[in-house]
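Field: sequence (string)
Field: structure_tokens (string)

Example rows 1 and 2, in order.
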Amino acid sequence: MVGLAFDCLANPLGAVRVTFEKAVEGSPQNDPAAFDCKDWGAVDVFRKFLFEEGGLDQVPVLDQSNIHLIRPNSLVRYRGMVQDMLGKEFYIGVFKDGSNWNTNKFTDVPQFPIPPASETRLWERRLYHCVPVPGQNSWVSEVSSSPQFHTILTNSHLLNHGEKRSRDENDAAMDLEREATSMCKKQKDGSSSKIDGDVSSSGGSYFEAPASLSCLVKVYDLPESDIKLNDVIEFIGIYTFDPDTALHENNDGDEFLHSLTEDVSLHFPPSKVPRLHCITFQKMTIPDLVSRSCPIEDLSSAVRVVRESLLRHLTSVLGNDGLAAQYTLLHLLSRVRGRVDVMVVGKFSLNLTGFTRESASIFGDNLSRWIKDLTPFSDVIPLSVAYLNTAQLRPRKDNVTGRMIPGVLQLAHGTHLTVDETHLATGALNSTGVENAKLLKELLQWQMVGYDCEYYNLDMPADVQVLVISERRSNILPADAIVPFHPEAVNAATWTVLSDELPAWRWYLASCRTLHHHSVSPEMRKVLENDFVGARQLDKTLQGEDLSRWVTMGQLLSASFGESQLTPQHWQMVREMERLRQGRLRVIH
């Protein structure tokens, strides 16, 4: 035989079946219980195809723009944030048909009819509801930008089922066009015409593409701790769609059919939430997103040049306020690097004060726009009394449906959040407003978000960069550094998109942000202690939190130069920045 016996891209279930049959044949007494049912070699076949043979670029990305083009039972990619962890699902992993064993792994329904009273093995998989990453900015290019993508979608193998679900021998022989015709006929005979319309427009997937495509991901053979809530993950797996389930879902009058539908289908209808059976996955970090979206050559030798360019631009955006620009740069490089008791190491929230509603509409909006262009995930909260009293910031678990009701603060790690307090006016907070104000304060202070699980609250760790824009020092959001904003001019040129420099700036922020900071050397520790003692002799209000902030600033400043060790030069730069900031604060008071 010449070539592969199966097609990993268009007929992945064929690859699963062939490798399974070979594994069973090689096991004692042809019994699947005699070999490791968790992996019989199928995953290795796909990984070789994807990562060694260049198959990854051929796999289409599943999103709302192409869901109507992609055939069920084909290999796809889906990138999203884990919004909810739905626990385990048990299924018949293998069953015996006569003397032959078959597997149902990576499918929602059996590929072949299960004979009555056949010998079976019960396996389990984990369910995750994933959604597009909240606040993902448009410049973060999806992998679907691959030059091969459009060719893939017109490939005849992908526009037809590679492995069809069958209820009997006739169904197994039926091709997709006849299946679609049958579905249309059923709809015209009395049920809703919604799916009928989907068939004609979607080429047989019967899928209603929503404005934002979520996905029910089924993961196999994985410890629960490997995937966590709010992780950003790219899953590669088999997209499945069961048209019978979609029909039952739209037949509201048939209570019997609804009673047969599994709970997960009731709350995540397959005509709106596609199923993806995960074969392999990768957790996405900020550098992963930037390197894919902005592929540029290594700039390790040009960090200082890029730093100077970005700092110059931030200064221009902030009306030539160089001090505010320096603090903003450190803020954009901050991240949670660890937790020691109640102390959060590495965070650096920033409060720029001195804004009015008018100046916020100029400088604040311009800064938010550029942060959006520089960071993969960002959001802006126009904080007002009405917003606090009505917004749902806290994520909530609905114990009746078992679903997570998302809140504004359910965000992926690495998200940037700008809070514009210039919208605040005199008014009374209701109970919701008081709770929302507390949630925002806890996010700034402890990088924690409280989840409402009805009978108890669950504090989830976060890693969100928070920038507060306000007229005076915020009474709601106590930031790590308060910097009075002193603009000198409005620079119209900052509104121009600098496409030639943006990739380098994005790369710079992503790379320097992930530098591992070494502990402060004994020599530098002595310098820090002596300087802090001397500073306290001049200012009795200084406390341990101030020294902690200085150390964080020193490490971030070192990272801004591409270095992981705090040096005396960078420490003196931090002291000068703090001296200038304190001078501005004294003028205000």
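Row 2 begins here:
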Amino acid sequence: MDNSAPAAGIYKNGNDKKKFKGDKSPCSPSRVLHLRKIPSDVTEAEVISLGLPFGKVTNLLILKGKSQAFLEMASEEAAVTMVNYYTPATPHLRSQPVYIQYSNHRELKTDNLPNQARARAALQAANAMQSGSLAVTSALEGGFLPGQGSVLRIIVENLFYPVTLEVLYQIFSKFGCVLKIITFTRNNQFQALVQYADPVNAYSAKMGLDGQSIYTLCCTLHIDFSKLTNLNVKYNNDKSRDFTRLDLPFGEGQPPLEPSIAATFGTQNVIFPSYAGAAGFAPVMGFAEGAGLLVPPVPGAPSSLAVPASAAPGQITVPGVSGVPGNSVLLVSNLNPEAITPHGLFILFGVYGDVHRVKIMFKKKENALVQMADATQAQLAISNLNGQRLYGRVLRATLSKHQTVQLPREGQEGQGLTKDYSNSPLHRFKKPGSKNFQNIFPPSATLHLSNIPPSVSVDDLKKLFASTGSTVKAFRFFQTDCKMALIQLGSVEEGVHALIMLHNHDLGENHHLRVSFSKSTI
């Protein structure tokens, strides 16, 4: 129950007397989250790591004697996304399941409590790493945290089940934009190199996943920072992939390691694993893609955790989980039928890939199908948009059982609810190697604006965004390029709505505004 904190006055709204029933969270969202059954030896950094993928963590209180903790997020939106994510996929800390629910407290007040120094230090370090500010970048480059870059080296121990490149992508992409992955085997150990777009993302992934197991009691991850600064991927196949270069060939036979990798690991014992992964990305298989999470045990599997007979080589089959390997069609549900349009879904999902078709269900307009260009982009959209608030509702996104979105026949009922965007000029990822691949971020209150003509002023842009119902908190033109700017709105949901309404807005002089989510703040 969420009433275990010592001494009145810890919270600004008094005692929390609501009793916990089963695994159901309180109905009223709060940016303060209550964590139960945490290990007695857990560290502050480990608890904070659960919240980092979803936003800034602003306060922490650990009650080790009661195996409980309270985590305060910077916004209610971040807390809602976190609870929605962890509800179907229970997180683990030190191999122990942890249960998360909303607290009845609206804010933590721990200023006068003893033994909070470690919590404050851990919060400062974690949020500094996550902020992505120039100061942090400078600190990283200046050796404040030596040996930390954007490339991680992963060793998978106790390999009872095959671990494919697709599985690694689904897990590690939860912490940020994954640019490249290379998998290989050395000294009979399955290993991988994962390169992020930003060292901040790599830090968060290491803190959240090091020591965790992909599947229950096996496939344990041991993560270090690599000495490499860049991975040179020559082939896009089931052993290696460069997500910024969709034009790379599949390759004949096993792809060679780049010289720097071969020099780092040695070449005599490098043998690429023979796991037969799907050419496209496998579906989300019921396992968590975030901080320190385990795949639930396969139902009916013996204690030895042998691969079930139904499992195809290179693919773990989890009963009861739908989805087609390599599928690029998403089922989007819990939409607001009064506000959503095919164009709105096209613009929003288009941040994470090229949307080919959108279909809003005629008889149940809270549901829609969104067809992406490929399965990689579909997974990227799921990891960034599932649980996001959109027009007052929490959006759900998962893989659909359909492999294509059928266009309606001429004159068919509800024809206007299905749109084909296959040849749209607004696709962001048409050009291989485009910088857009390196600037994919989760929804945020801060938006990146580009293609601004010289005649448009700060006030013009502020008024434009205010006309969408947004509260403009801050605005800044780039010093080096006046065609670009950052604008900070009142909430993440406001940022989502403004992006949908104003991306490609005509600013005059043959300039159409380009809007994307930013990792920065002003």
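free_text_note (row 2): The first strand starts at residue 32 and ends at 36.
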